[in-house]
């Protein structure tokens, strides 16, 4: 369906009323194949929704390991912060997704980064 929509003029970075793009939705509940298709079609992985969540924040929050790995390969900025000042690492830890937290740390996420309340992810 995604391929059909893209082939027929769908805007890959269109945002819904909450500011989410197709990549945000796929980050939470989709497949790596769909994410790759969106990224290859020009999806911007650093676009933020109305809560300043990037697709990587969504993947980390929802425990979508495959999506998290796919976005890292695209060079997504792991320092991006949501409206609470949380990095994707904060989101992974808060969601109990330790495997994703480990992957983020392996890729250089800042373990000492603080949110707007001064809290680190740990």
Automatic annotation (TrEMBL):
The keyword Repeat applies. Gene3D superfamilies: Ankyrin repeat-containing domain. InterPro entries: Ankyrin_rpt, Ankyrin_rpt-contain_sf. Pfam families: Ank, Ank_2. ANK repeats lie at residues 18-50, 51-83, 84-116. Keywords: ANK repeat, Repeat. This is Ankyrin. It comes from Aspergillus fijiensis CBS 313.89. The lineage of its organism: Eukaryota, Fungi, Dikarya, Ascomycota, Pezizomycotina.
């Amino acid at each position: 369906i995604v391929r059909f929509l893209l082939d027929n003029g769908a805007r890959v970075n269109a945002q819904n009323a909450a500011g989410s793009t197709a990549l945000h939705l796929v980050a939470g509940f989709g497949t790596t194949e769909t994410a790759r298709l969106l990224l290859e079609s020009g999806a911007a992985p650093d676009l933020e929704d109305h809560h300043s969540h990037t697709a990587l924040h969504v993947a980390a929050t929802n425990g979508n390991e495959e999506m998290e790995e796919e976005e890292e390969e695209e060079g997504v900025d792991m320092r991006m912060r949501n409206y609470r000042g949380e990095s994707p690492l904060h989101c992974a830890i808060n969601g109990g997704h330790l495997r994703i937290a480990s992957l983020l740390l392996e890729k250089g996420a800042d373990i000492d980064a603080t949110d707007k309340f001064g809290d680190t992810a740990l």
